[in-house]
Design a protein that fits this description.
Layout (H helix, E strand, L loop, with lengths): L3 E10 L6 E11 L4 E5 L6 H8 L7 E6 L2 E2 L5 H11 E4 L11 H12 L5 H11 L14 H13 L5 E5 L7 H18 L3 E4 L3 H4 L4 E6 L2 E7 L8
Parallel strand pairs: 3-8, 3-9, 6-7, 7-8
Antiparallel strand pairs: 1-2, 1-4, 4-5, 9-10
Helix pairs in contact: 3-5, 5-6
The chain binds adenosine-5'-diphosphate (2 copies).
Length: 232
């Protein structure tokens, strides 16, 4: 099964004269172990699509699945649980807690869920993200690229079905951005993680396996990226 998919997804914000149709009948599937980039003009529905797929936003009609789970069948409580255990999210603004160390930020989703870290997995993620020597630092003592890598490690720490990243390199210079992208790419190659990333930046998109294009709330095409492997 796909890590996540949408069938006939429609999202309308508001109602009546002021209604905005953000997504018009989207069918899309994100296979396991693939790094997909979503591109498209501002306002084309990229963030809305990710929010609906991640269960952060309700849909107007159609269906959204994470793994085999139909999100429309879940109670609010089950949906919260699914978001916590099976979905990772990386935001443009990092969203780290300033008073916690890098290590505490990374393991926060486990603390919230009352789960013990799987030490082997934690070490693998911390090694891959290249932050072993920065774990006791607070966010203010880290560069932007390091902060975003902490946020990526945090998104991966629960071994989620799928990680969504909304413009993860939007606030970074190109070198820091490349470090974050290399880590996301490595998580797909080494851990068989599924990653979906919204980006405006063609260089960022070149790290992905496939680019899908949105325009005016519709999928208008996709291209596989045969060169992604060689970027690392
Ligand atoms: P993108 O991420 O591609 O820039 P968005 O998903 O943010 O696009 O927005 C798609 C459309 O939905 C835009 O017209 C936007 O103004 C509208 N929109 C997004 N969020 C809301 C909201 N919470 N309320 C009303 N309209 C929204
Ligand atoms: P992005 O394009 O990166 O999603 P936006 O500035 O479009 O950034 O949206 C930022 C936030 O504002 C999002 O949570 C989005 O849902 C919300 N939003 C976007 N457009 C509207 C709108 N027309 N009305 C209300 N909320 C909106």
């Amino acid at each position: 099964a796909a890590a996540a998919r949408a069938e006939g997804l429609v999202k309308i914000y508001g109602s009546g004269q002021t209604a905005v149709t953000a997504l018009r009948n989207i069918d899309v599937s994100f296979p396991r172990g693939r790094f997909t980039a979503i591109m498209g003009p501002s306002g084309s529905g990229k963030s809305t699509l990710m929010h609906c797929l991640a269960g952060l936003d309700t849909v107007t009609s159609g269906r959204v699945y994470v793994g085999d789970v139909d999100l429309s069948k879940l109670s609010d409580k089950q949906l919260t649980q699914l978001r916590r255990d099976r979905v990772g999210f990386v935001f443009q603004q990092f969203n780290l807690l300033p008073t916690l160390t890098a290590a505490e930020n990374i393991t926060l989703p486990l603390s919230i869920a009352g789960r013990k870290p799987d030490q082997e997995w934690l070490r693998a993620v911390v090694d891959a993200v290249g932050l072993a020597s920065r774990l006791s630092h607070r966010p203010a003592e880290l560069s932007g690229g390091q902060q975003q890598r902490v946020a990526c490690a945090r998104a991966l720490v629960t071994r989620p079905e799928i990680v969504f990243a909304d413009e993860p390199t939007g606030n970074l210079d190109s070198r820091s951005g490349a470090e974050v992208l290399a880590f996301l790419q490595r998580s797909v190659r080494e851990f068989d993680q599924t990653v979906v990333m919204v980006t405006h930046d063609p260089t960022a998109a070149s790290f992905s396996d496939e680019v899908v294009f949105l325009a005016d709330g519709q999928l208008v095409g996709s291209i596989p990226n045969p060169t992604a492997e060689s970027v690392l």
